[in-house]
Known about the structure:
This protein is 55% helix and 10% strand. With 102 residues, it is mainly alpha-helical. The chain has one domain (7-101): Glycogen Phosphorylase B (Rossmann fold, 3-Layer(aba) Sandwich), CATH 3.40.50.2000.
Amino acid sequence: YLGARVYVQPSVTEGFGLPVLEAMVMGVPVISSDGGALREVVGEAGIVVQLGANFVNSLAKAIERIIDDKKLQNTLISMGYERVKEFSWEITAKQTLRVITG
Length: 102
């Protein structure tokens, strides 16, 4: 991720999306499709592009938008750092325990 200006995950289906979180923790702005769990993983900390007929054009516009807008880059980087914290082992373990114990 070092040197990347943007990370793009254009998956049609995705079980979780760990690379999205890896990019965020490395300070790389994220663009993903809304395939599988990606919308939930990215949340508001990246740009999520809806799959469909205009997907490729929308994806290209999102990439251009991030590359051209330094303020947006910085905002997404900051939001990404905060989003990743929600997936810490401690928080994930507590959430899993809540599900198991009802």
